[in-house]
Model the fold of this input.
Amino acid sequence: MKYYNYLLIALLMLASCKEKSKQSETLPSNSIFNLSTEWQNQKGETLQLKNLQGKTLVVVMIYTSCKTACPILVAKMKTIEEKIDRKDIEKVSLVLVSIDPETDTPTRLAEFAKINKMDAPQWVFLTSNKDATQEFANVLSMKYKRISPIDFSHSNIISIFKPNGQLVSQEEGSEINVEKVVTTVTKTVKSNS
Done:
């Protein structure tokens, strides 16, 4: 009987290792989940981007003290969230990544989320250090530059990623087409269900 128990445990361990290996193999080389930097969310939890794996991501880079473009981007993200079919919302994460990690602490991001009524589970706010932020911006082809102690000049880009971290599409500029983003998110969710 002991022999069978040991054999069963060995087989379970082997299956577990094989499953982990299979997950690693299926991650594409151009996935954002290959980035190994650490981030903190609005709850103060430390994570890596790969912790967001499994959901369609809608990503924008902002900073909370912005008075010009970021409020428009935040409003667009809120409109996108409202237009996503409620039966699909649990398969989507709306991710706002700060370009100002010195100011945008997890506490500040949590306050910003609450004030803007973006504190439902689908909303994820991330902050890290300058290097991780720059690396992620480079991956998105998003440019930003500090132009004063409290202001940044930056690109306005909303990016959509498959649940495996591959970029699907980007909308750029001050006139981001919300309907197009919602359509792309819906198609991505359906094709990965």
